[in-house]
TrEMBL record:
Organism: Brachybacterium tyrofermentans
Subcellular locations according to the entry: Cell membrane
Descriptive protein name: Carbohydrate ABC transporter permease
Record-stated family: Belongs to the binding-protein-dependent transport system permease family.
Gly residues composition bias: residue spans: 13-25
Membrane-spanning ranges: 45-66, 111-132, 144-164, 176-196, 217-242, 272-297
Domain ABC transmembrane type-1, first and last residues per copy: 107-297
Length: 311
Protein backbone atom coordinates (compact mmCIF):
# COMPACT_ATOMS: atom_id res chain seq x y z
CA UNK A 1 0.00 0.00 0.00
CA UNK A 2 1.45 3.30 -1.09
CA UNK A 3 1.15 6.45 0.96
CA UNK A 4 -0.18 9.44 -0.97
CA UNK A 5 0.76 12.96 -0.09
CA UNK A 6 -1.94 15.65 -0.27
CA UNK A 7 -0.93 19.09 -1.51
CA UNK A 8 -2.71 22.04 0.01
CA UNK A 9 -3.00 25.33 -1.90
CA UNK A 10 -3.34 28.50 0.13
CA UNK A 11 -4.84 31.76 -1.09
CA UNK A 12 -3.64 35.16 0.07
CA UNK A 13 -5.79 36.69 2.79
CA UNK A 14 -5.74 39.73 4.91
CA UNK A 15 -2.97 42.08 3.93
CA UNK A 16 -1.85 40.36 0.71
CA UNK A 17 -1.05 42.14 -2.54
CA UNK A 18 -4.68 41.99 -3.79
CA UNK A 19 -5.99 44.02 -0.90
CA UNK A 20 -3.34 46.67 -1.31
CA UNK A 21 -4.24 47.10 -4.98
CA UNK A 22 -7.95 47.50 -4.15
CA UNK A 23 -7.21 50.07 -1.49
CA UNK A 24 -5.19 52.14 -3.95
CA UNK A 25 -7.96 52.07 -6.57
CA UNK A 26 -10.51 53.14 -3.97
CA UNK A 27 -8.32 56.05 -2.89
CA UNK A 28 -7.94 57.21 -6.49
CA UNK A 29 -11.70 57.05 -7.01
CA UNK A 30 -12.30 59.07 -3.83
CA UNK A 31 -9.82 61.70 -5.00
CA UNK A 32 -11.52 61.99 -8.38
CA UNK A 33 -14.92 62.28 -6.72
CA UNK A 34 -13.66 65.00 -4.38
CA UNK A 35 -12.12 66.87 -7.32
CA UNK A 36 -15.37 66.61 -9.28
CA UNK A 37 -17.36 67.87 -6.29
CA UNK A 38 -14.98 70.80 -5.89
CA UNK A 39 -15.32 71.71 -9.57
CA UNK A 40 -19.10 71.53 -9.39
CA UNK A 41 -19.08 73.81 -6.36
CA UNK A 42 -16.84 76.34 -8.12
CA UNK A 43 -19.02 76.24 -11.23
CA UNK A 44 -22.15 76.71 -9.12
CA UNK A 45 -20.70 79.72 -7.33
CA UNK A 46 -19.35 81.21 -10.57
CA UNK A 47 -22.91 81.21 -11.95
CA UNK A 48 -24.70 81.89 -8.69
CA UNK A 49 -22.92 85.09 -7.68
CA UNK A 50 -23.66 86.96 -10.98
CA UNK A 51 -27.27 85.76 -10.85
CA UNK A 52 -27.67 87.07 -7.30
CA UNK A 53 -26.18 90.40 -8.35
CA UNK A 54 -28.61 90.65 -11.29
CA UNK A 55 -31.52 89.68 -9.02
CA UNK A 56 -30.63 92.44 -6.59
CA UNK A 57 -30.38 94.95 -9.45
CA UNK A 58 -33.83 93.93 -10.69
CA UNK A 59 -35.24 94.28 -7.17
CA UNK A 60 -33.89 97.80 -6.66
CA UNK A 61 -36.89 99.52 -8.34
CA UNK A 62 -39.27 97.55 -6.11
CA UNK A 63 -37.22 98.49 -3.05
CA UNK A 64 -37.40 102.15 -4.11
CA UNK A 65 -41.17 101.83 -4.60
CA UNK A 66 -41.69 100.37 -1.11
CA UNK A 67 -39.36 102.96 0.45
CA UNK A 68 -41.12 105.85 -1.31
CA UNK A 69 -44.55 104.55 -0.28
CA UNK A 70 -43.57 105.17 3.35
CA UNK A 71 -42.37 108.76 2.87
CA UNK A 72 -43.97 112.20 2.64
CA UNK A 73 -44.01 113.65 -0.87
CA UNK A 74 -41.26 116.17 -0.06
CA UNK A 75 -38.83 113.35 0.75
CA UNK A 76 -39.64 111.13 -2.21
CA UNK A 77 -37.05 112.59 -4.60
CA UNK A 78 -34.50 113.84 -2.10
CA UNK A 79 -30.84 113.34 -3.08
CA UNK A 80 -29.04 111.43 -1.66
CA UNK A 81 -31.86 108.97 -1.21
CA UNK A 82 -32.69 107.58 2.21
CA UNK A 83 -33.70 103.96 1.70
CA UNK A 84 -35.15 103.44 5.19
CA UNK A 85 -37.33 106.35 6.39
CA UNK A 86 -36.74 107.60 9.92
CA UNK A 87 -40.47 107.71 10.56
CA UNK A 88 -42.41 105.45 8.17
CA UNK A 89 -45.60 107.11 7.02
CA UNK A 90 -48.14 104.27 7.18
CA UNK A 91 -50.88 106.84 6.69
CA UNK A 92 -50.17 106.65 2.97
CA UNK A 93 -51.65 103.15 2.85
CA UNK A 94 -54.63 104.18 4.94
CA UNK A 95 -55.30 107.12 2.62
CA UNK A 96 -54.98 104.93 -0.47
CA UNK A 97 -57.41 102.31 0.84
CA UNK A 98 -59.99 104.39 2.68
CA UNK A 99 -59.39 108.00 1.64
CA UNK A 100 -61.21 110.23 -0.81
CA UNK A 101 -59.49 108.60 -3.83
CA UNK A 102 -59.74 105.04 -2.54
CA UNK A 103 -58.54 102.30 -4.88
CA UNK A 104 -60.97 99.72 -3.51
CA UNK A 105 -63.52 100.27 -6.30
CA UNK A 106 -60.90 100.22 -9.12
CA UNK A 107 -59.33 97.20 -7.40
CA UNK A 108 -62.66 95.34 -7.45
CA UNK A 109 -63.24 96.32 -11.09
CA UNK A 110 -59.82 94.95 -12.03
CA UNK A 111 -60.50 91.68 -10.21
CA UNK A 112 -63.85 91.32 -12.00
CA UNK A 113 -62.38 92.08 -15.43
CA UNK A 114 -59.33 89.86 -14.95
CA UNK A 115 -61.35 86.90 -13.66
CA UNK A 116 -63.80 86.94 -16.57
CA UNK A 117 -61.03 87.49 -19.11
CA UNK A 118 -59.08 84.54 -17.74
CA UNK A 119 -62.13 82.26 -17.77
CA UNK A 120 -63.12 83.36 -21.26
CA UNK A 121 -59.58 83.09 -22.62
CA UNK A 122 -59.05 79.60 -21.22
CA UNK A 123 -62.39 78.43 -22.63
CA UNK A 124 -61.92 79.79 -26.15
CA UNK A 125 -58.20 79.02 -26.38
CA UNK A 126 -58.50 75.39 -25.27
CA UNK A 127 -61.49 74.68 -27.53
CA UNK A 128 -59.99 76.42 -30.58
CA UNK A 129 -56.53 74.95 -29.93
CA UNK A 130 -57.95 71.44 -29.74
CA UNK A 131 -60.00 71.96 -32.90
CA UNK A 132 -56.99 73.18 -34.89
CA UNK A 133 -54.80 70.38 -33.53
CA UNK A 134 -56.98 67.26 -33.52
CA UNK A 135 -60.10 67.81 -35.63
CA UNK A 136 -60.00 67.21 -39.36
CA UNK A 137 -62.01 69.67 -41.44
CA UNK A 138 -61.51 71.27 -44.87
CA UNK A 139 -59.22 74.29 -44.90
CA UNK A 140 -58.01 73.80 -41.34
CA UNK A 141 -54.45 74.90 -42.08
CA UNK A 142 -55.52 77.93 -44.12
CA UNK A 143 -57.99 79.08 -41.47
CA UNK A 144 -55.32 78.79 -38.79
CA UNK A 145 -52.78 80.76 -40.84
CA UNK A 146 -55.39 83.46 -41.50
CA UNK A 147 -56.12 83.57 -37.77
CA UNK A 148 -52.42 83.92 -36.98
CA UNK A 149 -52.11 86.69 -39.57
CA UNK A 150 -54.48 88.87 -37.56
CA UNK A 151 -51.75 89.20 -34.91
CA UNK A 152 -49.71 91.22 -37.42
CA UNK A 153 -52.20 94.09 -37.12
CA UNK A 154 -51.09 96.53 -34.38
CA UNK A 155 -53.61 96.67 -31.56
CA UNK A 156 -53.63 100.47 -31.68
CA UNK A 157 -55.13 100.39 -35.19
CA UNK A 158 -58.14 98.53 -33.85
CA UNK A 159 -58.97 101.00 -31.09
CA UNK A 160 -61.03 103.39 -33.24
CA UNK A 161 -63.10 100.69 -35.03
CA UNK A 162 -63.64 98.95 -31.72
CA UNK A 163 -64.65 102.24 -30.12
CA UNK A 164 -67.30 102.87 -32.81
CA UNK A 165 -68.50 99.26 -32.64
CA UNK A 166 -68.90 99.24 -28.86
CA UNK A 167 -70.58 102.62 -28.86
CA UNK A 168 -73.25 101.33 -31.25
CA UNK A 169 -73.73 98.28 -29.04
CA UNK A 170 -74.05 100.51 -25.94
CA UNK A 171 -70.97 98.86 -24.44
CA UNK A 172 -68.87 102.01 -24.28
CA UNK A 173 -67.93 103.04 -20.72
CA UNK A 174 -68.75 99.56 -19.40
CA UNK A 175 -66.43 96.87 -18.14
CA UNK A 176 -67.64 94.56 -20.92
CA UNK A 177 -65.72 96.70 -23.40
CA UNK A 178 -62.59 95.41 -21.66
CA UNK A 179 -63.75 91.85 -21.02
CA UNK A 180 -65.08 90.73 -24.40
CA UNK A 181 -61.99 91.51 -26.56
CA UNK A 182 -59.74 89.92 -23.94
CA UNK A 183 -61.51 86.58 -24.21
CA UNK A 184 -60.08 85.89 -27.66
CA UNK A 185 -56.35 86.08 -28.29
CA UNK A 186 -54.20 84.62 -31.04
CA UNK A 187 -51.37 83.75 -28.66
CA UNK A 188 -53.60 81.70 -26.36
CA UNK A 189 -55.00 79.67 -29.25
CA UNK A 190 -51.52 79.17 -30.70
CA UNK A 191 -50.07 77.95 -27.38
CA UNK A 192 -52.88 75.47 -26.79
CA UNK A 193 -52.77 74.21 -30.38
CA UNK A 194 -49.05 73.55 -30.14
CA UNK A 195 -49.56 71.67 -26.90
CA UNK A 196 -52.39 69.49 -28.21
CA UNK A 197 -50.40 68.68 -31.35
CA UNK A 198 -47.65 67.25 -29.16
CA UNK A 199 -50.11 64.78 -27.56
CA UNK A 200 -50.42 61.31 -29.17
CA UNK A 201 -53.42 60.63 -31.42
CA UNK A 202 -53.61 57.06 -30.10
CA UNK A 203 -55.44 58.33 -27.00
CA UNK A 204 -58.32 59.63 -29.09
CA UNK A 205 -58.43 56.52 -31.29
CA UNK A 206 -58.67 54.23 -28.28
CA UNK A 207 -61.43 56.38 -26.76
CA UNK A 208 -63.41 56.35 -30.02
CA UNK A 209 -63.27 52.56 -30.06
CA UNK A 210 -64.84 52.64 -26.58
CA UNK A 211 -67.68 54.82 -27.87
CA UNK A 212 -66.55 58.25 -26.64
CA UNK A 213 -67.54 61.30 -28.65
CA UNK A 214 -65.19 64.17 -29.51
CA UNK A 215 -66.22 66.37 -26.58
CA UNK A 216 -65.72 63.51 -24.11
CA UNK A 217 -62.28 62.84 -25.57
CA UNK A 218 -61.38 66.50 -25.16
CA UNK A 219 -62.69 66.85 -21.59
CA UNK A 220 -61.62 63.49 -20.14
CA UNK A 221 -58.34 62.78 -21.91
CA UNK A 222 -56.59 65.80 -23.39
CA UNK A 223 -57.78 68.59 -21.09
CA UNK A 224 -56.49 67.05 -17.81
CA UNK A 225 -53.07 66.52 -19.40
CA UNK A 226 -52.93 70.20 -20.41
CA UNK A 227 -53.32 71.69 -16.93
CA UNK A 228 -49.71 72.91 -16.79
CA UNK A 229 -50.08 74.85 -20.06
CA UNK A 230 -53.52 76.09 -19.00
CA UNK A 231 -52.01 77.41 -15.75
CA UNK A 232 -49.27 79.21 -17.67
CA UNK A 233 -51.84 80.78 -20.00
CA UNK A 234 -53.97 81.81 -17.00
CA UNK A 235 -51.01 83.62 -15.43
CA UNK A 236 -50.17 85.44 -18.67
CA UNK A 237 -53.79 86.46 -19.27
CA UNK A 238 -54.21 87.69 -15.71
CA UNK A 239 -51.05 89.81 -15.88
CA UNK A 240 -52.06 91.30 -19.25
CA UNK A 241 -55.51 92.19 -17.95
CA UNK A 242 -54.29 93.49 -14.58
CA UNK A 243 -51.67 95.80 -16.12
CA UNK A 244 -53.77 96.98 -19.08
CA UNK A 245 -53.85 100.78 -19.11
CA UNK A 246 -54.41 101.70 -22.75
CA UNK A 247 -57.76 99.96 -23.22
CA UNK A 248 -59.46 101.43 -20.11
CA UNK A 249 -58.08 104.84 -21.06
CA UNK A 250 -59.94 104.67 -24.40
CA UNK A 251 -63.15 102.88 -23.43
CA UNK A 252 -63.85 104.14 -19.90
CA UNK A 253 -64.84 107.67 -18.91
CA UNK A 254 -66.68 107.26 -15.60
CA UNK A 255 -64.44 107.08 -12.49
CA UNK A 256 -66.72 104.42 -10.97
CA UNK A 257 -65.77 102.09 -13.85
CA UNK A 258 -62.03 102.70 -13.68
CA UNK A 259 -59.75 99.73 -13.29
CA UNK A 260 -56.69 99.81 -11.06
CA UNK A 261 -54.18 101.21 -13.62
CA UNK A 262 -56.55 104.13 -14.18
CA UNK A 263 -57.13 104.53 -10.46
CA UNK A 264 -53.40 104.93 -9.85
CA UNK A 265 -53.46 108.22 -11.78
CA UNK A 266 -55.91 109.87 -9.36
CA UNK A 267 -53.41 110.61 -6.59
CA UNK A 268 -52.30 114.23 -6.87
CA UNK A 269 -51.23 116.89 -4.42
CA UNK A 270 -52.70 120.40 -3.94
CA UNK A 271 -50.76 121.66 -6.97
CA UNK A 272 -52.07 118.96 -9.30
CA UNK A 273 -48.75 117.11 -9.42
CA UNK A 274 -48.37 113.41 -8.73
CA UNK A 275 -48.38 112.54 -5.03
CA UNK A 276 -45.39 110.20 -5.00
CA UNK A 277 -46.03 108.63 -1.60
CA UNK A 278 -49.68 107.81 -2.27
CA UNK A 279 -48.99 106.62 -5.84
CA UNK A 280 -46.23 104.27 -4.68
CA UNK A 281 -48.39 102.94 -1.84
CA UNK A 282 -51.15 102.17 -4.35
CA UNK A 283 -48.58 100.56 -6.67
CA UNK A 284 -47.35 98.28 -3.87
CA UNK A 285 -50.92 97.14 -3.25
CA UNK A 286 -51.50 96.60 -6.97
CA UNK A 287 -48.65 94.09 -7.36
CA UNK A 288 -49.82 91.86 -4.49
CA UNK A 289 -52.44 89.94 -6.57
CA UNK A 290 -49.90 89.29 -9.33
CA UNK A 291 -47.42 87.88 -6.81
CA UNK A 292 -50.10 85.69 -5.25
CA UNK A 293 -51.25 84.30 -8.60
CA UNK A 294 -47.69 83.55 -9.66
CA UNK A 295 -46.80 81.88 -6.35
CA UNK A 296 -49.91 79.69 -6.52
CA UNK A 297 -49.30 78.54 -10.10
CA UNK A 298 -45.50 78.80 -10.11
CA UNK A 299 -44.75 75.09 -10.38
CA UNK A 300 -47.19 74.50 -13.21
CA UNK A 301 -45.97 77.61 -15.02
CA UNK A 302 -42.33 76.47 -14.87
CA UNK A 303 -43.35 72.94 -15.89
CA UNK A 304 -45.29 74.26 -18.90
CA UNK A 305 -42.40 76.43 -20.04
CA UNK A 306 -39.97 73.51 -19.63
CA UNK A 307 -42.19 71.11 -21.55
CA UNK A 308 -42.64 73.66 -24.35
CA UNK A 309 -38.87 74.16 -24.60
CA UNK A 310 -38.20 70.41 -24.72
CA UNK A 311 -40.83 69.81 -27.39
Amino acid sequence: MTDSTATTTTTPTGGGPGRGHGTGAGADMAKRQALRTRRDRVRRWSWGIPMWILALLFLLPFAWMISTSLKPDVEAFRIPMQWIPDQPRWENYTEVLFGESSILIPFGNSVFVAALRVLGELTTATLAGYAFAKLRFPGRGKVFIAYLATSLIPAQLLLVPRFVYFEKLSLYDTLWALILPGMFTVLGTFLMRQYFISQPDEFAEAARLDGANEFQIFVRIYLPNAMSMISALAILTFVWSWNDYETPLVFLSTPENYTLPMGLTSFTDENGAMAAGLSMAASVISIVPILLVFLIFQRRFVRAMTESALK
